[in-house]
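Throughout this chapter, every protein is written as a compact record of paired, labelled lines. An example of such a record is reproduced below:
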Amino acid sequence: MAILDWENFERIHGRPEGARGAFENVCFELIRKENNLSNNVKKIRPHNGDHGIDICVNNIGIEPIKIYQCKYFRDSLGDSQKNQIRHSFSTIVSNEKFEVCSWTLMLPHDMSVEENGWWNIWKDKMNKNVPSIQISCICGQEIIQKLREYNLYEKYFTVSLPKIEKCVLVKENFESVIESYIKNYTSVLFLQEKDEPQIELRDLYIEIEYEIFLSDVDSLENANIGLIEYLNLFINYEGKASRNTLPVLFIEGHAGIGKTSFISKLAYEYRNNNVLSGWNLYIIRLRDLISEGGKINFLNPWQDFYHYLNIGSSFSEFMKEMNRSVLILEGFDELSMIDNIQN
């Protein structure tokens, strides 16, 4: 089963406006595929409002149309998002310029239990009020699955490197990955008036609260310090050299708790020489390793990491580099949902 990689989608297309426009293009191509590339599938250009239509199927004013409303709500359905959905539907119901036979909402994220409950209650109410319009929703995992079925996933969720100079670009990949996290940490989150300060993630970053639930480093079990400080202590712990296994720090947390933001802050502080003194930092987004249908052997993944990072003239040189490096693997939990993981 594939994952919804909307975070990577935003990195590729730009947040939030670029990703919002790209999402409409995703929906349009998907609907055209489902209608055998029919010319009856049209995107509606906003002009004095879009009359509640982003995409429609069939001919407006001549026959009943199918309407698709694309709402790029990334995280959740709050009161504002629900009001936008209600408004979009009421707009098409009250319009006398066309007849509607179906209305489909398209969202990038899967709904929670509470959101599904709200949606079903609202849809049931609208079905009773307007029985002539069939109401449905396509969201999250279903969109990703359909994109894969129609071979559209790669177009919007991966970055294609040109064959020429590809080896040079791949060699620089580990630097560009770090830069992407730094950009995430320093990008403007909210657009303000010109004379007001722009708000970035680093302005709002809150240190993650954490609890150590398993450690063989007794002196660090009760460390009451920030997570980055803990990481510094962990990698410089004197006792780790006597162990036969590679020291691993596993950071676990629910989606949205701030794991990616933590990595972004770490990359930013590393680039400014504030942390990991004497160490090299490498970040691997594990989903990138399988973007071209490859497989990761987690029993011995170092060859995969070597080819991905392309550091050193040989594998042995790469492993020597790793002896003085901090290697962050992001998205391990996401890969547990992907079919092509080995072991």
Remarks:
- The CA atoms of residues 74 and 109 lie 6 Å apart.
- The chain has 15 helices and eleven strands.
- Residues 160-172, 339-343 have pLDDT under 50 and may be disordered.
- The longest strand covers residues 100-107.
